[in-house]
Amino acid sequence: MRTLPPTSITPVALLLSILGSVACSADPTVRDDLPQCVLDFSEALRWKHLPAALKFVSPDHREAFINAVQAAAKEAEVLDFEVVALNVQPDGKSAQATVMFSYMRSGNLTLVNGVEIQHWSLRDGNWVLIQQVGPETPGAVSSPFVVVPETSD
Q: How many domains does the chain have?
């Protein structure tokens, strides 16, 4: 078994101490930490906790968001999620998060991995969700929270 000298610190311990100090010192009323906002929002979606999720949604997106979440709650059971990518624009005022939700459709035991691109905007010091869209990759499946417009044939 390898032992470390008393003065060295493992990368994991360093990361945990930094995250712990940031989490403990942050004002919970100010939602300026984008990665945590994306995690909290996605976790609320995963557990179908609409009031918690709505705290992150911009007022002009709320109606479409509520409709999408209510439809998803009837049709899908989300089992897990993963934030795949998080890209903040150079101006620091907008960002995109790519989130994959693993879910099962009602009446079907097949696991589906659906992706959504969350568009976030920094407004008055708070990150708010302004849009959710499906992936641009051909053949990729959208998350159950993305409303896909119907096409007329």
A: 1
